[in-house]
Specification:
The chain is α/β, with parallel strands linked by helices. It folds into three domains: 144 residues, 3-Layer(aba) Sandwich (Rossmann fold), CATH 3.40.50.300; 72 residues, Helicase, Ruva Protein, domain 3 (Orthogonal Bundle), CATH 1.10.8; 124 residues, Zinc Finger, Delta Prime, domain 3 (Up-down Bundle), CATH 1.20.272.10. It is built from 17 helices and seven strands. A five-stranded parallel sheet has the order 2-3-4-1-5, sandwiched between helices. It has a two-stranded parallel ribbon with strand order 6-7. Helix 11 runs antiparallel to helix 12. The longest helix has 23 residues. The chain starts with a helix and ends with a helix. It catalyses: DNA(n) + a 2'-deoxyribonucleoside 5'-triphosphate = DNA(n+1) + diphosphate. It comes from Gottschalkia acidurici (strain ATCC 7906 / DSM 604 / BCRC 14475 / CIP 104303 / KCTC 5404 / NCIMB 10678 / 9a) (Clostridium acidurici). Keywords: DNA replication, DNA-directed DNA polymerase, Nucleotidyltransferase, Transferase. Belongs to the DNA polymerase HolA subunit family. It is an enzyme of class 2 (transferase).
Length: 353
């Protein structure tokens, strides 16, 4: 389920007894906790009715005891437990050893909790072990919420609202440009809403009292991402502009980007172009292409389609094979990394058409 269902429960005053939040986008967790405090807790008694527990340093008995204490001058008591290791699929960390008897008691307790308590487990993992009994019991008694990245219109509205809250306006096209530059939408990136918020705050500080946010402002402040540099490099290759492609590559290495990371990103970009071109030529819509290649926004898919026009399908396939062979030669020490990359760029761009 999405985090919005949790927010709906809060707004309707229909909090369930137990929730399990998991995923990378912990910014959404902060929104949920803030909303619960705002709607359910009197700030004067917050220390009595809101308990935060470090799951790595607690026992299951301590969690149950925290839930059993009745709320004081409040409708609900909120108990938040973060990083409890029992939700992880494999491996252990520094957490306290969990007693099997206690785990069974916590499993049973979740099915018979008091309506006066809302227990929220927070797991900062992309996946949880849904086979575990405690996860199944939480699903029966409450709600399991995946804190996934915002996408599409919802993400655009969030960016717009961040600027609006500071009295700023930004056009939709400039929002899309900002998101693309941020690389938040890329599946392989670790960027979160915290990072976007930081970038937005820098833009707001930069423009001062001016109300309108422009593309130029975004360019001036937003951090240069490797993804965008790679896109430009591949663009220069497609235009047969070998000199600019080499220059872009040298700029990245001077900036401290590792050769292997640049190689990986080029392989990824060429693969995306190849897949996009094949699907587009078969008549797939932009939305369907995005689903097939795991790209979250139509804006990026359209950019891939446009860039793919610089290449034939055969050229992209040959380029991908060349990428992989160059990568292997660099990793096995058959050729110096920087020299190997420069040879690849020259050969790829000069063999087009």
């Amino acid at each position: 389920m999405s985090y919005k269902e949790f927010l709906t429960d809060i707004e309707k005053k229909q909090l369930k007894r137990v929730y399990l939040l998991f995923g990378k986008e912990m910014y959404l967790k902060d929104i949920i906790i803030s909303k619960i405090k705002q709607d359910y807790l009197d700030s004067s008694f917050e220390t009595l009715n809101y308990i935060h527990i470090d799951g790595k340093k607690t026992t299951d008995d301590e969690i149950i005891n925290a839930c059993e204490t009745l709320p004081f001058m409040s409708e609900k008591k909120i108990v938040v437990v973060e990083d409890l290791d029992i939700f992880k699929g494999k491996g252990k960390d520094e957490s306290v050893e969990r007693d099997e008897r206690q785990v069974e008691e916590l499993d049973k307790y979740i099915l018979d909790m008091s309506e006066s308590t809302c227990l929220i487990f927070i797991c900062k993992e992309e996946k949880i072990d849904s086979r575990k009994k405690i996860v199944k019991n939480i699903k029966k008694s409450g709600l399991i919420v995946e804190l996934d990245k915002l996408k599409g219109d919802e993400l655009e509205r969030w960016v717009s609202s961040q600027f609006k809250d500071h009295g700023k306006k930004i056009l939709k096209n400039d929002i899309l440009y900002f998101l693309n530059l941020s690389s938040y939408l890329e599946k392989s990136t670790n960027k979160t809403l915290y990072d976007l918020e930081n970038e937005i705050n820098k833009i707001i500080s930069y423009i001062g009292s001016r109300e309108e946010v422009t593309k130029k402002d975004v360019d001036s402040i937003s951090s240069k991402s490797l993804e965008n540099d790679i896109f430009k490099l591949v663009d220069f290759i497609g235009q047969k502009n070998t000199a600019m492609a080499i220059s872009m590559f040298n700029e990245m290495t001077i900036g401290g980007e590792p050769i292997q990371k640049i190689m990986y990103m080029i392989v990824r970009q060429v693969r995306l172009l190849f897949m996009t071109k094949l699907l587009y030529e078969k008549g797939y819509s932009i939305g369907a292409i995005g689903q097939k290649i795991n790209v979250y926004h139509n804006f990026i898919v359209q950019k891939l389609i446009n860039q793919g026009r610089n290449f034939t399908t055969e050229e992209l396939l040959n380029g991908l094979k060349k990428c992989i062979s160059t990568d292997e030669n660099i990793k096995t020490g058959k050729i110096d990394g920087k020299l190997g990359m420069e040879i690849f760029i020259v050969e790829f761009s000069q063999k087009l058409n």
